[in-house]
Amino acid sequence: MANNDEKAKKIVVIYAPPVMISHLAPLVELGELVAAHGLESTIVLGGLTDDAAAAASSSIAEGAATAHPAGLSFHRLPYVTRPRDVPAHDYVLQTFALARASNSDLREFLRAASPSLVSALVLDFFCGCAVDVGAELGIPTYFFFTSSISGLAEMLYFPVIHEQTTALRLRGHGGDDHVHAPGNPPIPLHDLPAAYADCLSLFLAVAEQMCKSHGLIVNSFRSLEPRATDAIVNGLCTPPGCRTPPLHCIGPLLKLGEAGTNRHECLAWLDAQPEASVVFLCFGTMGRFNVEQTRQVARGLERSGQRFIWVLRRPPDQDDGKQNTDPDLDALLPDGFLAGTKDKGLVVKSWAPQREVLAHAAVGGFVTHCGWNSVLEAIMGGVPMLAWPMYAEQRMNKVFLVEGMRLAVVMEGYDKDMVGDEEVATKVRWLMESDGGRELRERARAARRRAKDALSDGGESRTSLLELVGQWKR
Q: Where exactly are the transmembrane stretches of this chain (predicted)?
């Protein structure tokens, strides 16, 4: 049996939360990279319930396993019961609870796979409770942080922040107070994720679990966030008495240039536009505005006089109980908007191929919700950003982008009831026409060059990945 084990290929198990698509996509890409470098890679989905939403969200991993069968496999753990004591609307708490409910099934899966063949267990942030499973079975366990290095620094330092900040102030009732983590710009209390206060004990536990791991893998690159990287590596972000695991910056993990055979109509529209002349507006899979905010954006775009592509989702206040229905543009947008902007703008219903759009030469600006996957896609496209954060860690990302990396300018009013049409018009025009906008564009293009260098042969991210894979093979 030992001889067979020695001949068998080592396995890296990646444990992913099924309902966080923004986390699942880069985890799948990590699995593909691992498989491409000669290791077996298995993506395990735990915390699945038998409802349609959970089943639908696992399609990304299933599609990857089908498209790239060599070395990459996909495994669903048995269904678990949705906890009754967790509010149905609290998807953060639900994801943590469902992942914990799958721990015993993960343990049995790893035992069946033979722990001696599993060279690493890689955990998503929400699956951190499984660090004890890895320790019990003697499997080296790592965290893959799907957001920024700056966000990781903040997470590691969270126990210290908690000691210095009351739960009430974490909810944003601290006036002009800021929190300070090593390597990061000061963050206003109202820009911290609400989940920090709502799920306080869980986030404190994650910080502790990360310190127990064999390493921290992050979807970013050192030269993009040097101060945060140095702070983590030098042990400044972990609480006193805690060890700092090795840091592996391997990003950006993106698959640009892999569009399907059916090219989206918006790309053909972009082909006819001048270079760097179009503003792209897109707010992620969960980003939706109410009717009045949507109309303010429309009036602002029209007043700006700039070319644009706007991905528009159905407003929550127009929901009719149906899932994923397209918006009725004629009923939603101001009278005359579509006719008045037909020569300069394109409104796309619900979805556009964001990676391909941001990589297109005609795109010169991006109005974004600051989700980290979107940020990386903008960086790889060399596109400057207008930051309009909406939920989760996006407000923190806004601070990192604006104050730290200096790749974005904030859309004022994001934290108020409404961003007015005048602000939309002014900022879009500034981005596309002003000297300040041109300077921002140059910084974005410089970041693109650094990203491509990081991923090239001998580059910092590629080297870090190869070192990590080499450890796992040994």
A: none
